[in-house]
Write a structure and sequence with these properties.
It comes from Bradyrhizobium jicamae. GO terms for molecular function: hydrolase activity; metal ion binding. β1 and β2 form a beta hairpin. With 382 residues, the protein is an alpha/beta fold. The protein folds into two domains: 257 residues, 3-Layer(aba) Sandwich (Aminopeptidase), CATH 3.40.630.10; 115 residues, Alpha-Beta Plaits. α1 runs antiparallel to α3 and α3 packs across α9. It has nine helices and 16 strands. The longest helix has 21 residues. Helices cover 31% and strands 27% of the residues. Strands 1-2-4-3-5-16-6-15 form an eight-stranded mixed beta sheet, with helices on both faces.
């Protein structure tokens, strides 16, 4: 145990302050400022700011040359109203840390305290506080930032808490661990008319009704194998909230989900073909855009081996339970540059699920997560 009771008390207070003041993807200015202050106080040799947006990177140099190992946490919260009665519940209406990113940041803050007291013997340790994970844009923006090229890591590790898994247990596996997904925004445009004379307009009513059924049917569902696909309608709108207007526009949002990027391309093309065919049959114009684009997340075998060695050394129970999972995660993009792997840390079998309005990160995981990360760093850099 490298954290004192005083450390844990201060770290829990820091997390709860983050929890009170969530910021959404791309807006994490104050959160980033809090992280910068923490890293400076924790003796980082260098603090890089503005990385891929509001990203912050703390660097701890070793005494001799060696590998560069980076740990990653996320800065952003969610656009959801928190419903808990916690004393430290979100003070920002409609925004909350309901995915545990406040806890993930605090785990890295705990590692920073340890690195301040004992630098790596070789190489360098880096702590990345990444922006905009929730909308899928953050990892790509960090990788595209010229400042990241200057500090390119050999290994990148991350974690995510996982409700439903026993508290403190770990799920980890090589290969595919998270699905690819993307938000498909469909806008159908015809022509409005008076509600008494709808025949003079071009209504998207029939098209939207057809798509609501047929686009979801494109998803095969079933086991999470390479053929898995799922299409989920998340939002629909037809016309304006008025009684005197036959609608001239409709909007449909769907999430496409597959285990692999290659299957995603197939389902995307099928969805686009369907939308174009239905729109043409009703004389409608169509516009399709994409948001929240996530590639599949793949764990590198060498990186997994290092994490498993750390888990065994710290006697943390682990298995491949629940993997791969349907949820998406932008961390997989780091494998394009480095050997990267993520593990999933149990938040409790009965704990509220991620993104539920009463979710809160379990403080018990701060020490467990930090201990796993520190053992991984020691194994690679000492």
């Amino acid at each position: 145990m490298f954290l004192t009771e005083h450390d844990l008390t201060e770290l829990m207070a820091w997390r709860r302050e983050l929890h009170r003041k969530p910021e959404l993807s791309g807006q994490e200015e104050q959160t980033a400022a809090a992280v910068q202050a923490l890293l400076h106080a924790a003796g980082a040799d260098k603090v890089v700011t503005g990385l891929g947006g509001h990203g912050v990177l703390g660097i701890y140099e070793g005494e001799t040359p060696g590998p560069t190992v980076m740990l990653r946490a996320e800065l952003d919260g969610l656009p959801i109203q928190e419903t808990s009665e916690l004393a430290y519940r979100s003070s920002v209406p409609g925004k909350a840390h309901l995915c545990g990113h406040d806890g993930h940041m605090t785990i890295l803050a705990a590692v920073a305290r340890r690195l301040c007291r004992q630098r790596p013997k070789r190489g360098r340790a880096m702590l990345l506080f990444q922006p905009a994970e929730e909308d899928g844009s953050g990892a790509a923006a960090v990788l595209a930032d010229a400042k990241f090229d200057e500090v390119r890591p050999d290994f990148v590790f991350s974690l995510h808490n996982l409700p439903g898994l026993p508290l403190g247990q770990v799920s980890i596996a090589e290969g595919l661990v998270n699905c690819a997904s993307r938000g498909m925004q469909i806008v159908l445009t015809g022509r409005t008319a008076h509600a008494s004379s709808p025949e003079f307009g071009v209504s998207p009513q029939r098209a939207i009704a057809t798509l609501l059924n047929e686009i979801t049917a494109l998803g095969r569902g079933g086991a999470l194998d390479e053929a898995f696909s799922m299409v989920t309608v998340t939002h629909a709108r037809l016309g304006e909230p008025a009684f005197g207007i036959s609608p001239g526009q409709a909007e449909l949002w769907v999430t496409l989900r597959t285990l692999t990027d290659s299957t995603m391309e197939l389902i995307r093309q099928q969805a686009e073909d369907l939308v174009q065919r239905v729109a043409a049959s009703e004389g409608l114009q169509v516009r399709i855009t994409y948001r929240d684009v996530f590639s599949h997340c793949l764990n590198n075998a060498d990186a997994v081996a290092h994490l498993k060695a750390a888990l065994d050394a710290e006697r943390v129970r682990h298995s491949a339970q629940g993997l791969p999972m349907r949820g998406s995660e932008d961390f997989g993009r780091f494998n394009s540059r480095s050997k990267a792997a993520m593990f999933f840390l149990g938040a409790g079998e009965q704990h509220p699920s991620l993104h539920e309005p009463n979710y809160d990160f379990p403080d018990e995981l701060i020490e467990i997560g930090a201990t796993i990360f520190m053992r991984t760093l020691r194994n690679l850099l000492d």
